[in-house]
Design goal:
Elements lengths: L17 E8 L6 E6 L8 E2 L2 E3 L6 H13 L3 E14 L2 E12 L13 E7 L13 H14 L5 E3 L7 E3 L2
Parallel strand pairs: 1-6
Antiparallel strand pairs: 1-4, 2-3, 2-7, 5-6, 8-9
Length: 169
Amino acid sequence: MTPEPNTTSISCRPPEPAVGVGAIVFDASERVLLIRRGKEPAFGLWSIPGGRQEPGETLIQCCRREVLEETGIEIEPGPIVALVERIVSNFHYIIIDFVAVPKDPDGPDPNPATDVSDALWVALTDLNRYPLVEGLERVIRIARESSRSGFAVGLVDADGIGRDFLPNL
């Protein structure tokens, strides 16, 4: 006798990994730029600006574009300070986090746009007042120490065009 096919099981395929970037942007007062996520994953939590890399786009270009789209702030990305992987429900991201500074220190206040519901500058002493995405506070503090000491934690854009990231020796 042939067994009946199991029609109740659903084949779930893991999500395809996607490359994303984040920018840990510090202003002249050492505040960090945060955004509140307006959609999944992590809807409603506070994070740093960033998003998915587009085809043909370098990591540096992606970083600049995402911050501008989400906050209206133009930045200058610096060294990479973290590489994180997040697998949450239907999302699988490999995220490369850059330290960055605003191109115009006296520029406009952040203006939330695209997929964020809020954007603002936050003092490091106030981070505990915001529900942050997992692990973000540690990455922000590492980035701040790296910037203060002048020591680049992690990797730097070795070729200057966003293709080769090598240890900063």
